[in-house]
Amino acid sequence: MNAPESIGVVAIFFAAAITNNILLTMYLGMCSFLAVSRQVKTAVGLGMAVVFVMTFTSAINWVIYEYLLVPYKLEYLMYIVFIIVIASFVQLVEMIIERVSETLYNALGIFLPLITVNCAILGAALFMIIRKYTFLSAVSFSAGSGVGWMLAIIIMAGIRQKMANSKVPKGLEGAGITLIIAGIMSMAFMGFTGMITLN
Description:
Layout: H1 4-7, H2 9-19, H3 30-36, H4 40-69, H5 78-100, H6 102-108, H7 119-130, H8 135-162, H9 175-190
Helix pairs in contact: 2-8, 4-5, 4-7, 4-8, 5-6, 7-8, 8-9
């Protein structure tokens, strides 16, 4: 078991993205992962939005927690504050995507505002507190977690796009085959477990 300080910021980033992938090893953020992974373009758009939101909200939440909640003994407000910060940032991202790419905005549909309740984003913020990360370690962990989530959804979208013309048994069409693929991907990523540990 390695302490955050001893493994370094770069190692934390790669561990969060690969060996401890927040989606495929901790199963956080599965709802939007399964629903939006039909097209690679849409998956890339949502993945980038998740990376942006996860990185910046974790940084803001770390500062608020360490310099506001802890000194005034308001740690019990942590969940409420974290969710407010995440919701505000998602609103900002939604407005930016609507202005920059209306096609992507329409393709993401309801799942863009649902980033607010993506448990992977709140999970990253909570993990950085539980593991007592420094600011740089927290930012590195949340950026790595976002990149890992994006990597997983892009891989899934690529596989599902290739399978569009494949013959899938009737009983496995749709959610069935998607969950099987997710399970196989999860086993593949878990093969890296132990190279670098974060907990």
